[in-house]
Amino acid sequence: AEGASGWRVPRWPKALGGGSLAKPLLPLARDPFQGDNRRRALTSPQRALETLQPYARLHVDIIAARNLLARDLNGLSDPYVQVFVNDHHVGNTNVRNFTVNPWWDHRMAIDIFSPLTIVHLRVMDEDRFTKDDTIGFVEF
């Protein structure tokens, strides 16, 4: 049978309910990762980050630390936390001066683009005239 615009419209075989015009097909939802987006993402990882939506959003609360190692000559530290996602630096807490028991109460949201993402929190001691010292770290 022919449709209104002259297109040929197939009929269902009689064995499948017979003779009436073919049932309309629902349009497929376009996957944003098809076509040009997919091609660009596969050839350029940086482009993939710009093109694709995050896999998830991770909310990180850095509250406090206790009994940190003293890294300064005065027996204290000036601690802060660096946050890395897959070895990319994404933020810091504020520095808490002259303490080994800092309270940060810092909150941040991190976009996660892969289920295999590694988040690395590194506790540092800020030094004014020399390179900052690492106190410790945790990964998850």
UniProtKB/TrEMBL annotation:
A GO MF term: calcium ion binding
Any Pfam family the entry gives: C2
Gene Ontology terms: cellular component: membrane
Keyword presence, Nucleotide-binding: no
Domain C2: 41-140
The UniProt record lists the keyword Transport: no
Residue ranges that the Swiss-Prot or TrEMBL entry lists as coiled coil: none
Keywords: Calcium, Metal-binding
Superkingdom field: Eukaryota
Protein name listed in UniProt: C2 domain-containing protein
Organism: Zooxanthella nutricula
